[in-house]
UniProtKB/TrEMBL annotation:
Its cofactor is Mn(2+); Mg(2+). It comes from Aquibacillus koreensis. Its EC number is 3.6.1.73. It catalyses: XTP + H2O = XDP + phosphate + H(+); ITP + H2O = IDP + phosphate + H(+). GO terms for molecular function: ITPase activity; metal ion binding; nucleotide binding. The keyword Transferase does not apply. This is inosine/xanthosine triphosphatase. Gene3D superfamilies: 3.90.950.10. Keywords: Hydrolase, Magnesium, Manganese, Metal-binding, Nucleotide metabolism, Nucleotide-binding. Signal peptide: none annotated.
Length: 168
């Protein structure tokens, strides 16, 4: 079985490899077809599904994975939100979301002003490519849960549902 992951972000590739370690994992570009900075749960979920479907269409009999990051409003707070989708060899779609934590006010203000979280996090931490390393979730949890770990949990939820349905 070949697994296609629709991203070149190393945190996403590693999360897929961690959970499908016995299979060949191929990283390819896949369009989310949502805004670069999704602002709702719904938009983030759709982005993940779009990427997974594009991946599953790359070849016969493969599994496609989409992992998408965004933010969502909950009352006065803005939360990190992440979604994953797995499209299996028959076209069945499985979805799962990642852990959520609220973002500090100074971050949400910049997102509301139209900036992308990736850029805001690099400015905030004075680092480069936070999104390819610990991610915002890693920064605001002092490294307890990084982006790879969060996406790895999403992958467990996806593989588990797939196997339950297949009665593996
Ligand atoms: O190459 P792709 O797969 O697109 O990976 P990405 O890092 O851009 O990640 P997403 O498109 O899934 O995330 C959507 C936006 O949110 C940002 N983002 C999401 N989660 C983040 C995190 O934990 N840390 C920093 N930026 C994050 C990201 O930079 C984008 O601007
Ligand atoms: Mg992106």
């Amino acid at each position: 079985m070949i697994i296609y992951i629709g991203s070149k972000n190393p945190t996403k590739i590693k999360a897929v490899e961690n959970i499908f370690s016995e299979f060949e994992v191929k990283a390819v570009e896949a369009a989310s077809n949502v805004s670069p900075q999704p602002f709702t749960d719904q938009e983030t979920l759709i982005g993940a599904v779009n990427r997974a479907k594009e991946c599953a269409a790359k070849a016969e009999g493969v599994i496609g994975i989409g992992l998408e990051g965004g933010v969502m409003k909950l009352g006065e707070k803005m939360l990190l939100c992440n979604w994953g989708a797995l499209v299996d060899e028959t076209g069945e779609v499985y979805v799962a979301s990642g852990a959520r934590i609220p973002l500090p006010r100074e971050i949400t203000e910049q997102l509301e002003a139209g900036k992308e979280l990736g850029e805001v996090m690099d400015l905030f931490t004075k680092k480069t490519n936070v999104r390819k390393h610990e991610g915002a979730i890693g920064i605001f949890t002092k490294g307890y849960v990084g982006r790879e770990a969060m996406f790895t949990h999403v992958m467990e939820l996806l593989r588990g549902q797939y196997e339950f349905n297949k009665k593996v």
